[in-house]
Structures are given as C-alpha cells and as structure tokens.
Give the backbone structure.
Amino acid sequence: MYKETVYSAFNLLMHYPPASGAGQPPQPQPPLHNKASQPPHGVPQLSPLYEHFSSPHPSPAPTDISQKQVHRPLQTPDLSGFYSLTSGSMGQLPHTVSWFTHPSLMLGSGVPGHPAAIPHPAIVPPSGKQELQPYDRGLKTQAEAKMEKETKKPTIKKPLNAFMLYMKEMRAKVIAECTLKESAAINQILGRRWHALSREEQAKYYELARKERQLHMQLYPGWSARDNYGKKKRRSREKHQESNTGGKRSALGTYPEKAAAPTPFLPLTVL
DNA sequence: ATCCCTTTGAAGTTT
DNA sequence: AAACTTCAAAGGGAT
C-alpha cells in the first residue's frame, strides 16, 4: 500500500509524454548478441519491425524529455501505477517509466541533478535494504571507513528491458492463474508467453524499454552497466555459467530437461 | 543471511 | 565481429 502510493506519486511526477507520433510502431530492438535468445522456430521474428527504427542504439531525445516529465500536467487522478497488480492491460499504459515503481527502489537518496530531488527508484543501497543506523562507530581506520563508504554507495540499477517489463506486469496474473509460486517456474511460463505475443504486443514493451533507457541516460549520464558488475556475489560460478551462458540459453521448445514437461496441473491457458 | 534458479534483453567484456 | 558474461525482477528453495 505504502509502496504503491509512493510509486504512483513518482509516476505522476515523472509522467511521460506520449511518444511522438502515437500510433506509430514502437521501436523494439533486436537482440544484439545472443543468438540463443532469438525467437525459436515457429515464433514470429521481430526483425521486420526493427526496420522501422533508425538505430539499434537510439540516441535520447536531448533535453526535453526530463522537462516534460517533470512539468507535464497530470493527466489522470488515477493513482494506480502501470504495474498495478489489478490493472494489467498494456492497452491502458500510462506513459510512465517502470523503474519508478520498483519496489526495492524507494529507498535511496535523491536523484542526482534531478530538479525535483525526488528519491529515484533506480537508486538502492547495495544491500537493497535501508540503512537505519549509522554504521560507523568510529572504530574503523580512515581507509576502512572510506572503503566501506564506497561499498555502501547507492546502486543505480539497470533499466528494465522489454521482457522484464512484461514480467513485471504479468507475473501476478500468471501466479493467479496457476498454483505455482516459485519465480523460476513462473518465469518459464512468462518466457513462453512472451514468445507467444504478437509483434505488436511485444513492440509495446520494447518501446517502453526504450523510453526507460532514454530517461535513465538522462538522469544518470555517466552511469554504465559496468558500474554494477561484480556487485552480485556468486556462490558457484561454474554452475551458474552452465545454466546462464548465452550460447546454451534455452529457447522456446528447448527448455532444459528439468522444465521440459509442462507442469501437469497448469491450465493450458497458463502455458 | 545470502545465493540459486529461471526467463529475455541490453550492454559489458573477452576471444 | 562474434562469443561469452553480467545484471536487471521475483520469490521459493537451498546453502
């Protein structure tokens, strides 16, 4: 409740203007490197859509976006955010940016350089948890304190990609439709559903993701995905590589053995 | 308490 | 350039 209120308020403040030329095809971007993530045989390819777009790495519209999002008059009194668990239809997408609604992103400090100085949802403490107590009791050396301060810097998260946005919106729906609760299983279903989406449906999410990246670039001009590299600790690297290596990535119809068989108690519509 | 699993996509690094 | 790696979310399960 509190979360949603905060996020919605953020959404309202950061309302996005409609993409110029609404009704134009959005700008999905093809996977750049990962062949395994290409839609498998039988799944509509996205590439024909991509030719509508000028560049695989569209440069952000310079200056006006952030101004618009800050000064844009509120369009609707409805506080339900894009990711409201109850709404769910992309057809009603407000022009918002999803990471403003990230549950874990409401902590953090203000947005650097942001005119409204609103805590930005993409900023989280490294631990993901709020630091309630001063951690330095004065017992550490300067170097240690500096080191610790460095590691406690808020983390600016990556903007969500199209599929992540789709997952965020559809997860609750899938969970409601089946008895599964484990995210790994839910994500498999969502992956299948993603491939089953029409190009137009997917394009909505690609467009949203593009806007996310644009705004992220504007808010954090110097930020790089590299900044977050190595921040996740990995328990068994080999095992992780095996399951997460690009070339071995499972695709529709070729899921790992473990998940090959459809879950028996799932209604067909879920899969 | 923290990482793994599982998905796709973006972007980073390595070969 | 291509291949490979990491991290975004989520939350139950494993360590």
Observations:
- DSSP finds nine helices and two strands in chain A.
- The radius of gyration of chain A is 20 Å.
- Chain A has one domain: 2-29+43-128+140-228.
